[in-house]
Amino acid sequence: VADVKGGPDQGLDKLGQSLVITGWVRTLRVQSSVTFVEINDGSCLSNMQCVMDSGAEGYDQVESGSITTGASIWVQGVVVESQGSKQKVELKVNKIVLVGKSDPSFPIQKKRASREFLRTKAHLRPRTNTFGAVARVRNALAYATHKFFQENGFIWVASPIITASDCEGAGEQFCVTTLIPNSHETADSPVDAIPKVNNGLIDWSQDFFGKPAFLTVSGQLNAETYATALSDVYTFGPTFRAENSNTSRHLAEFWMIEPELAFADLNDDMACATAYLQSVIRYVLDNCKEDMEFFNTWIDKGIIDRLSDLANRDVVQITYTEAIDLLSRANKKFEFPVKWGCDLQSEHERYITEEAFGGCPDIKAFYMRQNDDGRTVAAMDMLVPKIGELIGGSQREERLEYLEARLDDLKLNKDAYWWYLDLRRYGSVPHAGFGLGFERLVQFATGMDNIRDAIPFPRTPASAEF
Ligand code: 4AD
Ligand code: MG
């Protein structure tokens, strides 16, 4: 359908062409002598209106009522000019084949279903306009991400999902455990197949073939190893956080994009983050026009103007201290009081991006490079309206003795980081990088207000179904 209707002539250049369309029935209107079937094939937001009468082969299936909303069909016909005002062209059908019937219980009927309801139907929600559009924009953002980094000389590196390191040091990791081979076939439930050790208690921290292993919270440490060999690299893959937060911005499984730049400092890092964000937003505005018009009309009025503005404006940079000053001077009562040294809460981020403007860091992870003042680190966050923190990044501590001291201060086990410390032993370089939460970017680009609607199958404390 996108091939036909997606061009500048909205299909008028295809008049007279014979073609086959396969897709799912969105609506069906039976009139006395003709029937209109709207088919969507997911290639674009638009449906193809198919017009058929008793002259069409297979029309008896329409007459018998077998073709209903949700059914999959195959139609062959000719592109003709449409009499209707909603589209320039339609398909005059010669032959229709019902591929798969749709049971009358099909839950995604035309009337608008709530997002909450659709989350319980994650397997069928991509059949709606909203979730089809989100999926296409998400795809475009992924493509634009690879395009940006590839065109700028970055090399994509696969970071592992199973790891022994806790990059953020926040202890928000899921443990990996192994089922006893074969016992799951006889056990009543998979839980019974989990090895029982320590008097029946599971030693969760020792269960990856006898060693501790977790799902990664970030690919950064691995990216650093490749950056200190290949120069500029990036990762793009799933990451996991066992934080029990039920918010519209947190998932237990989310995708992260983590570039790492060698021979670079915090300013290079911020310049890269800005250029990256502007480039992918521009890509979506240029290449997803129909879907973006849909979001602009139905989901978030004015989003196109706001994104265009962001794609072209200078990003405002302020220091952490300036952010704290700004918040302290704000004529506003915050739930979490503001003082120098505190981590910014989302209400603070909201104030800065929506009422004041944009940029300030999370509290120091062990790998962040210490500034000369001895009390701050070279870190940055990029905040955007409605979402808050979209990007977190820093210059990394490349000096061995500083890093060792920092690990000691935080009582982290230096032995576990032996390979990370090696990078500082053999040809260390100043380097910096950032992480961008891909679902937050999808939210930002589409205006969807809940992160659970920015990923096909959300994993949250409430649900990991589907
Ligand atoms: O700020 P974070 O925790 O930074 C890191 O993980 C660094 N290692 C990144 C780096 O420098 N390479 O996470 C980075 C971003 C956040 O800004 C946010 O957009 C996203 O990841 N994020 C989440 N997105 C969805 N659900 C969650 N639970 C998230 N936690 C972080
Ligand atoms: Mg952060």
Concise account of the structure shown:
This protein has 466 residues and is of the alpha+beta class.
Name of the top-level CATH class of the largest domain: Alpha Beta
* Beta strands, count: 13
Q: Give the class from helix and strand content and strand pairing.
A: alpha+beta
Describe the main β-sheet briefly: 6 strands, mixed
Q: What number of domains? A: 2
State the CATH superfamily name of the largest domain: Bira Bifunctional Protein, Domain 2
Q: Could you say which small molecules are bound to this protein? A: 4-amino-1,4-dioxobutan-2-aminium adenosine-5'-monophosphate, magnesium ion
What is the CA–CA distance across the termini?
29 Å
Radius of gyration: 27 Å
- The share of residues in helices is 25-40%
CATH topology of the largest domain: BirA Bifunctional Protein, domain 2
CATH architecture call of the largest domain: 2-Layer Sandwich
Task: Please indicate the percent range of residues in DSSP E strands (runs of 2 or more).
Answer: 15-25%
Strand order of the largest sheet: 6-9-10-13-12-11
Which whole number gives the mean pLDDT?
Answer: 91
Name the helix and strand elements from N-terminus to C-terminus, one letter apiece: HEEEHEEHHEEHEHEEHHHHHEEHHEH
Unreliable sequence segments = none
Coarse shape = elongated
Helical region count? 14
Question: How would you describe the overall organization of this protein?
Answer:
The chain has 466 residues and is α+β, with helices and mostly antiparallel strands. It folds into 2 domains: 2-100, OB fold (Dihydrolipoamide Acetyltransferase, E2P) (Beta Barrel), CATH 2.40.50.140; 130-176 and 213-317 and 358-453, Bira Bifunctional Protein, Domain 2 (BirA Bifunctional Protein, domain 2), CATH 3.30.930. 31% of the residues lie in helices and 20% in strands. It has a 6-stranded mixed β-sheet. It has a 5-stranded mixed barrel with strand order 1-2-3-5-4. A hairpin with a 7-residue loop joins strand 4 (72-81) and strand 5 (89-100). It is elongated. It starts with a helix and ends in a 20-residue tail after the last helix. The mean pLDDT is 91. The structure holds 4-amino-1,4-dioxobutan-2-aminium adenosine-5'-monophosphate (4AD) and magnesium ion (MG). Magnesium ion binds next to strand 12.
